[in-house]
Give the backbone structure.
Amino acid sequence: MELIERLPEGIEYLINEPMSRHTTFRTGGPADLMLLPSSLQELRETLSLLRSEGVKPFILGNGSNLLVSDKGIRGVVVKIGAGLDGMIADGDRVICGSGAFLTRLCGFAAENSLTGAEALYGIPGTVGGAVYMNAGAYGSEIKDILVSADYIESDGTFGTLHGTEGYGYRRSPFTDGDRIITSAVFAFKRGDRAKIEAKMEDIKSRRAEKQPLNFPSAGSVFKRPEGYFAAALIEQSGLKGTTVGGAQVSEKHAGFIVNTGGATTGDILSLIDIVREKVLKDSGVLLETEVRFIGEE
Ligand SMILES: Cc1cc2nc3c(=O)[nH]c(=O)nc-3n(C[C@H](O)[C@H](O)[C@H](O)COP(=O)(O)OP(=O)(O)OC[C@H]3O[C@@H](n4cnc5c(N)ncnc54)[C@H](O)[C@@H]3O)c2cc1C
């Protein structure tokens, strides 16, 4: 590939990289090329090269909300992770690289006696993916602590989005756009470290108790329909334990589809169709997926 010869010097890249190695579902075929920039400068140079070649990359965080086609991705994936994951405390604020794990941000806030992110502890995404999705749990959303997000625009210019206008249930001003989140600033309140840590532990055990964390998944597959709970509707339809190939509606939490071993994305998509059809027939509610599908159809 000609593109490879022109990549920023020293940048890590992977050819025909199985996406199953980069998604928490552990499914997905190969991406033609995956680039792993390890600094903001490398990311900037990478994006500039791709732009000059007319290539629009797919931006990957931790792959914890993704279903990647079994045929893979024809094109370039840019993974935002190590090297773009720095964080510093500045008074009651934390400035955090988008490649950092959200759970690490929560731990860092606790170490600095900063309260506000405890409920987000255990969401297995990056800070960039969490801002993009406006991830949330137990009555909190990341927008509740968000001050601003820095991004690179599709034309290569840098920008900052202040405030939380445009953030809503599992969506942000970045959703479905081309902007690449590079870092974000979060505001906390001063708190008691021991209490913050105890709250995080409580959240961790509540997750472990309710969620099938021993199997690969992407968390809740469906968004919460207004006035209902997706898991309750699925359970009422008697779908718990339903399987297609290696994919199963979790016995523990009906809102999760789990990969019990050897599932393909095709299995998961078929199971999603079965669930949506049955719930629509039984309850009249059309479930919308929270998990995002990408790759060759
Ligand atoms: C066991 C489990 C439990 C979960 N629990 C929750 C929960 O309680 N609440 C919740 O909200 N979610 C939950 N999730 C889903 C998931 O962790 C979140 O949606 C998370 O925010 C996704 O982050 P990610 O880095 O993995 O993003 P990815 O899955 O890699 O990407 C998701 C989207 O964000 C975009 N994106 C990622 N990084 C960037 C960036 N830097 N700039 C621009 N776009 C970007 C991608 O292009 C993609 O469209 C859970 C998942 C699992 C597996």
In short: The first strand starts at residue 12 and ends at 18.
